[in-house]
Design goal:
With 77 residues, the protein is an all-alpha fold. The chain contains four helices and no strands. It has helices at residues 2-5, 8-23, 29-44, 54-75.
């Protein structure tokens, strides 16, 4: 699992797949909101360490990975 999480090939795949999955009619709106709302809330709410935006990017990437895996397994998109 960790080896896959640190793979640049995997992250390239996740980044390329997220937008098509979010735009797909085969993926229900509630599934898209399950990904988008937590990410948006996390980006909007004030951070304790506002000088370190790296954690925002890390959380977003982890959510993108989770969303991509979940939707592709569930809907075969």
């Amino acid at each position: 699992m960790w080896k896959r999480l640190f793979s640049l090939r995997r992250w390239g795949y996740v980044v390329r797949r997220v937008l098509p999955l979010l735009g797909s009619r085969r993926v229900p709106l509630r599934e898209k909101l399950l990904f988008a709302l937590p990410v948006l809330v996390y980006w909007i709410m004030p951070d304790l360490w506002s000088f370190m935006p790296l954690d925002d990017a890390a959380v977003t990437l982890l959510m993108m990975n989770w969303f991509t895996e979940r939707i592709e397994k569930k809907y075969g998109a």
